[in-house]
Structures are given as C-alpha cells and as structure tokens.
Structure prediction request, 144 residues.
Amino acid sequence: MGTSLPLVVVESCSMYHEAGFEKWWDGNAAWYERKGITKEDFKEFSFNNGLNKGDIILVSGRGEYKTGDIIIFDSAYRYPLIHRIVDEKPLSTKGDNNFNQLPVEQDIDEERIIGKSFIRIPGLGWAKLIFFEGTRTSGKGFCE
Prediction:
C-alpha cells in the first residue's frame, strides 16, 4: 500500500453526513460553492456520503491528489486527520461535517500526507473505539 499507516479508524464526526447527501448538501452548499465545488462535482467525489465514526479506511500511499479526495495527514492534534481536499493550490482540506476549515488544514505540505483513502469498511472500527471511548472527555458515542 506504500504507507506507514495502511488503515485508520474514523474516530470523530467531522466527516459525518446525518441525513443523506441531499439534505447534507442543502445545509453545506454555500461553503463549497464559494470554493467552486458544485453539487454535481461533489456527487462525483469518492465517499460523497461522508464517513461515519467507527468506519475503517484503507489507505494507499502518497501520490497525486485532486479536489474531492479524502486524505490522511499529520496535524497538530494527537491523531492524523481524515478530511476531504477542497483546494489543490495550496493543498487544503475540510471535514464534511465541520462548519469551516481548521487552521491546520490550510496549506498542507506533502511531507505531512500519510496517504489517500480508497476503501471504507463501515462500522468495523467500533471494535477498537469501544475500548477507548470511556477515556475521552468529549466526542463520546455515535454522531448526531
């Protein structure tokens, strides 16, 4: 797979789409359209219905990236982020369920990229999360 991290577990709700694509788009269209990303563009993206907490994501190594790809990259946080590319120059991402970009998502150096998501295994990551959820002070449980 060409990466130091061949699989990751989605541990937050930042990529969650609560009620399917159409309703999600209605609530988020303005932000993406300001970036030049249309509804039709987004429908063509991989994982256009988002990712759920507890999903396992298989990761391919570094390569070429385009708008709409979901990448895994090192951040200033404890764990790498799994977010969608919203701009290629400079490379920047956003969690689908986040109101806006985090500062760490803007102008991402290629050295920080671990890889790109290519397969989603729904829910299987809960086998890991169930052991760690109790130790967290926030973000426990399912996404709402």
